Each structure stands twice: as C-alpha cells, then as structure tokens.
Amino acid sequence: MGTRTPRGTATTFGEEFGERLKAKREERGFTLEELADKAGMHSGRLSEYESGRHTPQLEKAAKLAEVLEVALDELVGLKAPEVREDVRNPRLRASVRALEASGHSRYIEAAGLAVEGFVALARHDEFEAVRPRRRK
C-alpha cells in the first residue's frame, strides 16, 4: 500500500521520490501505463507515487527501480544519479541488446553503420530546416 506523505511548505521525501520516479520513467520512454504494467501495479497508484501523495513500500520501490534499470539508492535519493549512456527508447534499446547478445560481429558492425547514417540524415534535416533559402 505505501504511506501517505504529509502536506507542508517544504518538499517532502514523497514529492522528491515522485519527481525522480517520473524523470526516470520519461527518460526510459515509458508511459505511466507501460511502467505500471511492467511493474505489476495500477497506473493510478503509480500516479500517486509520482505526485508525492503516497510513497511505495520497499518491495514496490525495488520493483520500480528494477524495471527502470536504476539503482534503488538513486531512486530514493541516497546517491547521485549515474550518468547513463544507454539508449532511452525501449524498443531500440531492446533491439541493440539482443543484437549484441547474438555475438554476430558483422551484423553489429552493419547496425552501427546504419545508425551513423541515420544520425547524418537527421543532422542534414536539422541543417536544412534552419538554412536560409536562396532565391532563384
């Protein structure tokens, strides 16, 4: 169930926990419903955690940390966030991990080249969007 956090002028532990939880959820690209489903809880309860109205029991907080792939210490604010260089999009992250696990170095190399190509295209599109147009 969790505990109810008191309302006052100072930021409570529950509110700080909720802010970190929401930031990690968004960083990982999960909707509220997706995270709730993966963690085995109701989205309404998860919303209450994110708003700081309630704080989860230890088991639920640990499950959320596991699903979000973050240390529980970080989620509850006992240590600074780790700098992650992981892919934020869950679908892309899962595909990259599966490809790496396959051990097929040729495919991994080809995927790296393809991603570099898409990055170049995205940068070109950004450049074209801000480049002044010449008159003919």
How would you describe this structure to a colleague?
It is a single chain. With 136 residues, this protein is mainly α. It folds into two domains: 3-75, lambda repressor-like DNA-binding domains (434 Repressor (Amino-terminal Domain)), CATH 1.10.260; 90-130. The protein has seven helices and two strands. It has helices at residues 13-28, 32-39, 43-51, 58-68, 72-75, 90-102, 105-130; strands at residues 3-4, 54-55. It has a two-stranded antiparallel sheet with strand order 1-2. It is extended and about 65 Å long. The mean pLDDT is 86.
What order do the helices and strands come in, and which of them pair?
Elements: E1 3-4, H1 13-28, H2 32-39, H3 43-51, E2 54-55, H4 58-68, H5 72-75, H6 90-102, H7 105-130
Antiparallel strand pairs: 1-2
Low-confidence stretches: none
Instruction: Outline the biggest β-sheet.
Output: 2 strands, antiparallel
**Beta-strand fraction estimate:** under 5%
Euclidean distance between termini CA atoms? 68 Å
The CATH topology assignment of the largest domain is 434 Repressor (Amino-terminal Domain)
Order of helices and strands: EHHHEHHHH
Strands, total number: 2
CATH architecture of the largest domain: Orthogonal Bundle
Give the % helix: 55-70%
Structural class assignment: mainly alpha
Counting DSSP H or I runs of 4 or more residues, the number of helices is 7
- How would you name the CATH homologous superfamily of the largest domain? lambda repressor-like DNA-binding domains
Specify the CATH class of the largest domain: Mainly Alpha
Question: What oligomeric state do these chains adopt?
Answer: single chain
How many whole angstroms does the radius of gyration measure? 20 Å
On the 0-100 scale, what is the average pLDDT?
86
